[in-house]
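Hello,

Our lab assistant flagged a job as stuck in the queue for most of the afternoon. It eventually completed. Since we weren't sure the result was trustworthy after the delay, we are filing this so someone can double-check. Below is the sequence as submitted and the structure that was eventually returned. Let us know if re-running is recommended.
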Amino acid sequence: QVQLVESGGGLVQAGGSLRLSCAASGRTFRTYAIAWFRQAPGKERELVTARSWSGTSTYYADSVKGRFTISKDNAKSTVYLQMNNLKPEDTGVYYCAADTLHVLAGVRLTQYDYDCWGQGTQVTVSS
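-- returned structure --
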């Protein structure tokens, strides 16, 4: 059973940066497709970015293109989300997710594709 633990959230001013981390247990983490989702108050959870198991394919929501970058360090079993030029509309709880049921998968684009979730980390961007 893979467990995911996010960290790195916080309060930042608009235009600032944060780097979120998602540490995973389990030796097969390198074979999983991964993603970051977020959920703002009163809104549905939305996909921010997704990465195939190999990293050769990635997806970014239009709202974060050019500002956010997903990366993965297999040696550390950790996924990162680098967020630059943050905007107030980026505020929300950020969740990392992994598809542990389909190894060597490509980019997965819906929350139903992921079976393993972290507890979430709050990101608040002030104007």
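-- support follow-up --
The delay was a queue issue, not a problem with the job. The result is valid. The two ends are 40 Å apart (CA to CA). The chain has a mean pLDDT of 95.
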